[in-house]
Amino acid sequence: MESIETRVGRWLNSPLVSQEDKNTISSMSAEEKADAFYRDIEFGTAGMRGVLGPGTNRMNEFTVRRAAVAFGRYLIEKFGKQAYEKGVAISHDNRFHSRDYSELSAEIFNAMGLKAYLFDSLRPTPELSFAVRYKGCVGGVMITASHNPKQYNGYKVYDEKGCQLVPDKIARLLQIIAEYPDPLEVEVPKGGKPGTTEILPAEVDDEYIRLVKEVQLNPGLCKKGFKIVYTPQHGASYENAMRVFRETGYEVTPVLSQCTHDPAFSGTKSPNPENPDAYIEALKLAKDIDADLVVMTDPDGDRVGVAYKSSKGDWRLFTGNESAALLLDYVLSERKLKGKLPADSVVYDTVVTSDLGRKIAHGYGVATESFLTGFKFIGDAIARKEEAHVPSTFVFGYEESYGCLLAPFVRDKDGIQAILLYCEMALFHHLKGESLDEAYEGLMKRYGYHMARGYSLELEGPTGHAKMGRMMEKLHSNPPHEVLGNGVLRLEDYETSLWEEKGERGPLTLPKSQLVKLFLSDGSWVAVRPSGTEPKIKFYVEAVGTGEEGLLEKAESIYSALREYLGA
């Protein structure tokens, strides 16, 4: 592999690189140059995501050009004439250069002979997934860095079903990308007849909104006096969300300082629903107007956060596992009550989500299936069963990272669907005179006490990348036999695709992934994996017990013990 200095020199001497970017590179410290140039920005199963700026490990017009050319070639190779006829749908969020990268992608696809469908302005990720299906496209592109900080952007690609590409589909795309080792030298292959770019009509919004409203289970609940605060975190969901709230009759007050499509996220300390700082302004407003509920969507509108007024009168936050468990119980109980819970119903989750959701589903006689992290696996499972005519009715899909899907007209997690049902669920309990902490306590009493928490270590640059590799290698080659005095009863290593339990081994059926999960003798578990989109390694812990007391401390101790074992 060529040196960092060689790569830096090539960018500084290239006539394609702007003087502004050359000045930026020249002003970088040695550590900053190393991080910007030590590798090519990774295009993985979650697409491409990284810090904006010049460099091979950065999001910029050259790395976007390479991704667009490769995706265009992939679509033409896979679909042939249909690719030219059906085209690609493109959307973007509010981030720096998001519109630029959308229009650049459309220009590249057009030059390759492909038609492009572009929204007139930003739209959320779930609507891009819907637009692919609505227009019958062969693929889609979403320019977004999801919930990452303002210095990030990203490039996600979708198949003809409106689902992000899963490993077996994306393998060929990665091969094509690898044919372009230098993003400065990517040439756009010309098609015979240039394609055109069409602005998507308002009917796409109208149909999407209509279908979102259909996920309601009890649309007639009395909403008078039930106050909701909503924030889109400066993102792409504001217009859609407020329209849905208005048309379904909810009394919603938006956090106006976070409703502008500001790429600098100036009105929030964090756009990430997993971060308590994201709720500061919304909670201030909620207290001022004596609201009952706070909901938020992240910048690209696929994740949702929830805060609520507790039975004690204070405001509390739900984790993604907790809010999804309550919503799942509400959906299944109301469907069953109304005779709308078919015998072949199925709930999809991931291998790092809480066991609580599976217990709830099984309590209603509903089957569950777990997949690797990444909602693309859930979307792909829906599509595969549909195509194979497998008797299976999808009723709910979710991951611990604040993403849910209620109705599969979208094949990605959908924050608009989710906040509408969270509002309905909270209103349902409110009308029963029950706060959400009381409702959640009821779940614990029925299914056992669970404390699921996520932790992460940021490890930036080439040294951090190498350290993550060493930590995962130790888990693969020398996993612990006990954690906090609890024996490891079962190990699942998704890199080797093997499970081990009581001296026996067997194959795992899910795709290979850098993920190891340890099941402990007291019923708790811990899983570890490197993030696919950020320079960090993630730990997922679930502690279980007969009561809530001490469970959080237990989860934190499991994390600390494993982190210490790995030499972090």
List the helices and strands and how they pair.
Blueprint: H1 4-13, H2 19-26, H3 30-37, E1 43-44, E2 47-51, H4 61-79, H5 81-86, E3 88-92, H6 98-111, E4 116-118, H7 125-135, E5 139-143, E6 152-158, H8 167-178, E7 197-199, H9 202-213, E8 227-231, H10 238-248, E9 251-254, H11 280-289, E10 293-297, E11 304-309, E12 315-317, H12 320-337, E13 345-350, H13 355-363, E14 367-371, H14 376-387, E15 393-399, E16 403-405, H15 415-431, H16 436-447, E17 449-458, H17 461-477, E18 482-483, E19 486-493, E20 498-501, E21 504-507, E22 516-520, E23 525-530, E24 536-545, H18 551-565
Parallel strand pairs: 3-4, 3-5, 4-7, 8-9, 8-10, 13-14, 13-15
Antiparallel strand pairs: 1-2, 2-6, 5-6, 10-11, 11-12, 15-16, 17-24, 18-19, 19-20, 19-22, 20-21, 22-23, 23-24
Helix pairs in contact: 4-6, 4-8, 9-10, 12-13, 12-16
Taking the sheet with the most strands, its summary is: 8 strands, antiparallel
Could you tell me the radius of gyration in angstroms? Answer: 24 Å
Quick one: how many beta strands? 24
Oligomer: single chain
Describe, in plain words, how this protein is organized in 3D:
By secondary structure, the protein is an alpha/beta fold. Helix content is 39%, strand content 22%. Strands 17, 18, 19, 20, 21, 22, 23 and 24 form an 8-stranded antiparallel beta sheet that branches. It has a 7-stranded mixed beta sheet with strand order 1-2-6-5-3-4-7, with helices on both faces. Strand 15 and strand 16 form a beta hairpin. Helix 4 (61-79) crosses helix 6 and helix 9 (202-213) crosses helix 10 (238-248). The model has no long low-confidence stretch (mean pLDDT 95).
